[in-house]
Design goal:
Number of helices: 5
Number of domains: 1
Radius of gyration: 15 Å
Shape: globular
């Protein structure tokens, strides 16, 4: 599969997650936001919110959760949830196309 052919389905994921623009209140809902699968977008956003909530309760974090919590502190819960949903969609796409299991990386210890 060529790189271009692999990018098109990922672009569909990105369009499905274009709710970020409306959720952040920066722009009114546009034609771009209405594209994509609303149910898939909802599932990814709810999954990301769940990851954020559970990450706050656990003492140990992998790099993804640490990144999400740090982002939440700087931009707020909703924007962080949408950004995490986008990242989760990209991870799901990579796992699916490469047929490999996801291997979370631990946060490096501060020296």
């Amino acid at each position: 599969m060529t790189t271009t052919r692999m990018r098109r389905p990922l672009a569909c994921f990105a369009v499905a997650l274009s709710l970020a623009i409306a959720a952040c209140g920066q722009e009114a809902a546009s034609e771009h936001i209405k594209r994509g699968d609303a149910y898939l977008r909802m599932l990814l956003i709810h999954g990301a919110r769940s990851v954020l909530c559970h990450a706050k309760k656990t003492p140990q974090h992998d790099r993804l959760r640490a990144w999400a919590l740090q982002l939440e502190k700087s931009v707020g819960h909703n924007r962080a949830a949408v950004a995490l949903a986008n990242k989760l969609a990209r991870i799901a796409w990579a796992v699916w196309t490469r047929a490999r299991a996801f291997e979370p990386m631990e946060v490096p210890e501060a020296a």
